[in-house]
């Protein structure tokens, strides 16, 4: 986690330095900024508060204001977009008595961050979100912890509202489930409000909170010099043809002969995906039934690239077999997934 701290008083700077040391010891990246007169011992000189906030809001996972809440609120207000995208924002008074999550309490992790701060400095975490205060299951927090995308944020609000009102919320998963469902969550495939975990969309409840797992691997083969736009179009056509979504893709896989293929690398960069490369020998050892090609065998030393790479890259099973486009082949595999509570 990248954390940016800011303080404005001598006490606040000392407290921010304590917090920075605590977070760094835990493996996080943490910087401290303060007015120029306090800029020493690793503390960066603060120029404009507005500039610091704009920069930090765009690049950090969390912002900690060792200051009054009002300063923090006014600073971040112009940058707020959505609790599903905004970084966590926590205010801590410079005496170290309270840690107050202000923005992105659940998905962004501000509530959890406030509790970490409180534990580090002996403060009280002042968590005000209704689900936390009433010990109610927070589907958005849980989804974020699992790495699932909440496709319709308003549906997550409907889940919380139902639980807070004592109404049951249905739960249906296309994947195996282990453990006991949280209080108020009941197995169901239809009803007023429900949670559905699936790679494809279906409105099974009147209000369906659809959680999209990120478990897919794209196996891609392509001719030398293929442009990234051609790869993107082939991928989009493959996914859309099976009612799958780019948001479910966790990585890309191909043969090591393509490790310097500019079009493939640019496609991955544009979609923020890592590409794993496998040798022909590794691809040959992939388990499953694959669409063999004598031409591919003679060219790269293995009878199929995209399907075998997808399976190896995912650690799971082939979901979509080889799809052939002009100069591009695409396959999709899904990593094993068990839903645990």
UniProtKB/TrEMBL annotation:
Pfam families: CbiG_C, CbiG_mid, CbiG_N. Residues 216-333 form the CobE/GbiG C-terminal domain. Residues 52-132 form the Cobalamin synthesis G N-terminal domain. InterPro entries: CbiG_hydrolase (IPR052553), CbiG_mid (IPR021745), CbiG_N (IPR021744), CobE/GbiG_C (IPR002750), CobE/GbiG_C_sf (IPR036518), GbiG_N_sf (IPR038029). Residues 137-184 form the Cobalamin biosynthesis central region domain. PANTHER family: COBALT-PRECORRIN-5A HYDROLASE (PTHR37477). This is Cobalamin biosynthesis protein. It comes from Anaeromassilibacillus senegalensis.
């Amino acid at each position: 986690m990248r954390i940016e701290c800011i303080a404005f008083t001598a006490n606040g700077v000392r407290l921010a330095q304590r917090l920075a040391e605590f977070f760094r010891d835990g493996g996080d990246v943490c910087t401290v900024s303060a007015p120029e007169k306090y800029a020493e011992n690793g503390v960066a000189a603060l120029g404009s508060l507005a500039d610091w906030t704009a920069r930090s809001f765009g690049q950090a996972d969390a912002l900690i204001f060792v200051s009054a809440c009002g300063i923090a609120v006014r600073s971040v207000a112009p940058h707020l977009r959505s609790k599903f995208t905004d970084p966590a924002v926590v205010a801590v008074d410079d005496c170290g008595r309270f840690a107050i999550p202000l923005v992105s309490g659940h998905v962004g992790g501000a509530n959890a961050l406030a509790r970490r701060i409180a534990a580090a400095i002996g403060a009280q975490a002042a968590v005000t979100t209704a689900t936390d205060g009433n010990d109610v299951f927070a589907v958005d927090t849980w989804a974020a912890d699992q790495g699932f995308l909440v496709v319709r944020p308003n549906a997550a609000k409907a889940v919380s509202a139902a639980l807070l009102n004592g109404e049951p919320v249905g739960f249906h998963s296309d994947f195996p489930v282990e453990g006991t469902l949280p209080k108020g969550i009941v197995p169901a495939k239809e009803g007023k409000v429900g949670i559905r975990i699936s790679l494809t969309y279906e409105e099974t409840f009147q209000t369906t909170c659809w959680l999209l797992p990120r478990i897919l691997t794209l196996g891609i083969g392509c001719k030398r010099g293929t442009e990234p736009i051609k790869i993107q179009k082939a991928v989009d056509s493959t996914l859309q043809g099976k009612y799958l979504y780019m948001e479910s893709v966790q990585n890309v896989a191909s043969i090591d002969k393509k490790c310097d293929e500019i079009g493939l690398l640019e496609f991955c960069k544009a979609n923020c995906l890592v590409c794993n490369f496998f040798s022909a020998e590794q691809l040959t050892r992939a388990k499953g039934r694959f669409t063999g090609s004598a031409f591919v065998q003679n060219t790269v030393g293995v009878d199929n690239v995209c399907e075998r790479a997808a399976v190896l890259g995912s650690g799971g099973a082939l979901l979509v077999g080889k799809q052939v486009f002009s100069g591009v082949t695409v396959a999709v595999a899904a990593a094993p997934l068990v839903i645990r509570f």
